[in-house]
Specification:
By secondary structure, this protein is mainly α. It has 4 helices and 3 strands, in the order ααβααββ. The protein has a 3-stranded antiparallel beta sheet with strand order 1-3-2.
Length: 115
């Protein structure tokens, strides 16, 4: 039986962010990646972190292809931002692009090499 305790670690997220995340309709793989970014940053009291594709795969259980696709969409949605090799969560939920019709599906935002 699982028995998680706050004393063993927790991720502090503002209620306003949780409420915005509950209302946004994005694919489950994107929510998984988004929550993983929040865990790897806020969960370690950091604003940004260098997260490899392998870490995303192991942390979410998603395939590499799904991780790359979800990351591209989250970056396009401005929900996750990238500075060099560092990822961070965009807490300004008013800037998120949640209208699927506005997503750019073919642009390679990772540059040459795909990531």
């Amino acid at each position: 039986m699982a028995s998680p305790q706050k004393e063993n670690g927790f991720t502090a997220v503002a209620n306003e962010i949780v409420e915005a995340l509950v209302k946004v309709r994005i694919p489950a793989s994107e929510k998984d990646i988004l929550l993983f970014v929040i865990r790897k940053t806020y969960g370690f009291h950091k604003k940004e972190d260098k997260i490899s594709l392998t870490q995303f795969e192991l942390g979410t259980g998603l395939s590499r292809v799904t991780v790359v696709k979800a990351l591209k969409n989250l970056l396009t949605r401005c929900m996750v931002l990238k500075k060099g090799s560092l990822f961070y969560f965009n807490k300004d939920h008013e800037t998120w692009v949640v209208n699927a019709g506005l997503l750019v599906k073919s642009e390679n935002i990772f540059g040459k090499g795909g990531y």
